[in-house]
Amino acid sequence: MEEITLNLPFFIAGVIIFIGFLGTIFFQKTRIPDVLFLIAIGLIIGPLGGWIDVKQLDKITPYFARLALIIILFEGGLHLSFDSIIKYLVGGVGLSLATYVLSMVSTYFICVYFLHMSVINSLLIGGIIGCTSPAVIIPLITQMNCKEESRSIISIESVVTEIFAIIGVIVLIDISLMDKFRPSSIMNSVIGSFSIGLVAAIVIGLLWMKVLKNVKSSALSYMTTLAVVLILFGVVEMSKGSGAVAAFVFGLVLRNGTRFLRVFDETKSFQLNGKIEEFHGEITFFIRTYFFVYLGLLIPLSLFTQYDMLKNGVLIVGGLIIARYIAVWLLCAIYKPMRSERFIYFVMLPRGLASAVVASLPFAYKVPRTEDFVTYTILVILISNVFMVLGIFAAERGVISQSKHSQLR
Question: Which structural domain range is residue 272 located in?
């Protein structure tokens, strides 16, 4: 029995990796986001089948959640180029701000007036589910025959709102744990932590580019880069800075190395080793697979008979859909190039990995009455992804009038 217990974690890890591979095939064959497949598998092998007990993962999950945050943020930086940011700044950042703020506002009102939650807990829920998911959106949008502009704007939006969610929830948790609410001290704290993270990431990023130029042929270039990200995150956090900002900006510096270097010397250039992005993709694959399967393991069978919670989940997603519609309508009124594919912008609202990760933070930090946050987040992830899939199918089959550019391949 003891030998089985010792080997079980390796078995579970192997099963999760293989499930992730099947999820990728499932997505390629059906164009249905593998998030739903992975959560369903977690539900089958956990609560339904009883093959894996979620309690066996309790000891490693808090550390894995923190690691997932770092990986997500670093990847977000690696995926953004200054050219795309500058070219699609109005659309991408505008849609990000509108989506996140309106999603928080709609969730706040629903939670306060219908679910009777406290103000801070309502804001926390809004912060958690206010972001769309690049882990779901980016693989899907790259398979669509929409305009390059739409593809870029939607991708930028998903990355930026994810950053908003991670940093916003951490700030709200700090506020909830304060004895007295002082806006000025909070603002100073936020600006200070941002500044520490920003400066540290740029300095370390510039130094690390120099190192990578000398070891670019090394097979260990990715692992050492990952080590630097982890060290940077830890040091910045211990210095009361924002490790989240540091991890994101560090990735941004490496992705846009030449632009950063030429601030100091016009002759300098830097090309990120393709192996780093390739290996990081492998790590991200395992991280996202683990968390979505883990979400399925967390779903209690009693949830399907808790009609009040299901009703509340549908109500929250309904608010997110209204918020998304208003955000897209506002941006289309200001930014005309978005109008031809507004329906695609509208349905691209799935929640995913970042929401799942940060949903467990309030309870971990002992914020009162947050034990149901993970369950609500799971419901929002499921329903929002189903809504997106139905929306894409409707556009694809001409049920919804849409530009020919919005058809899937």
Answer: 2-406
Tokens, residue 231: 């060290």
Distance CA 97, CA 285 (A): 28
The count of domains in the chain is: 1
Query: Which amino acid is present at 156?
Result: I
Average pLDDT of 183-206? Answer: 81
CATH assignment at residue 202: 1.20.1530.20
pTM for the model: 0.77
- Answer yes or no: are the C-beta atoms of 35 and 289 closer than 8 Å: no
The CA-atom distances, in angstroms, between 74 and each of 80, 206, 279, 292, 334 are: 10, 15, 13, 19, 32
Nearest to 77 by CA among 254, 338, 282, 292: 254
The pLDDT value recorded for residue 385 is: 86
Q: Give the pair of three-digit tokens for residue 264.
A: 């100091």
Do residues 201 and 253 lie in contact, with contact meaning Cβ atoms separated by under 8 Å? yes
Rounded to the nearest 5 degrees, what angle is found at the Cα of 351, between the Cα atoms of 391 and 326?
A: 60
